[in-house]
Amino acid sequence: MRRVAVVGVGCTKVGELWDKSLKDLVVESATKALDDAGIDNIDVVYVGNALAQILQNQSNLGSLVADCLGFEGIPAISVEAADASGSLAFHEAYKAVKFGWADKVLVVGVEKMSDSSSEEVSKALMTFEDQDYVAFTGITQAGIHALLLKFYMEKFGVKHEDIAMFAVEAHKKASKNPYAQFRNLIKLEDIFRSPVVADPLRLLEHTTLADGSASLILCPLEEAKKLKLQPIEVLASSTATDRFFLHERADMLTFNSTVKAAEKAFKEAKISRDQIDVVETHDSSTILGVISLEDLGFVEKGKGANFVVEGNITIDGRLPTNTMGGLKGRGHPLGATGVYQLVEVVWQLRGEAGENQVKNVKVGLTHTVGGVGSFASVNILGCLG
Amino acid sequence: MRRVAVVGVGCTKVGELWDKSLKDLVVESATKALDDAGIDNIDVVYVGNALAQILQNQSNLGSLVADCLGFEGIPAISVEAADASGSLAFHEAYKAVKFGWADKVLVVGVEKMSDSSSEEVSKALMTFEDQDYVAFTGITQAGIHALLLKFYMEKFGVKHEDIAMFAVEAHKKASKNPYAQFRNLIKLEDIFRSPVVADPLRLLEHTTLADGSASLILCPLEEAKKLKLQPIEVLASSTATDRFFLHERADMLTFNSTVKAAEKAFKEAKISRDQIDVVETHDSSTILGVISLEDLGFVEKGKGANFVVEGNITIDGRLPTNTMGGLKGRGHPLGATGVYQLVEVVWQLRGEAGENQVKNVKVGLTHTVGGVGSFASVNILGCLG
Question: Bridge-partner residues for B241, per DSSP?
Answer without folding.
Answer: B375
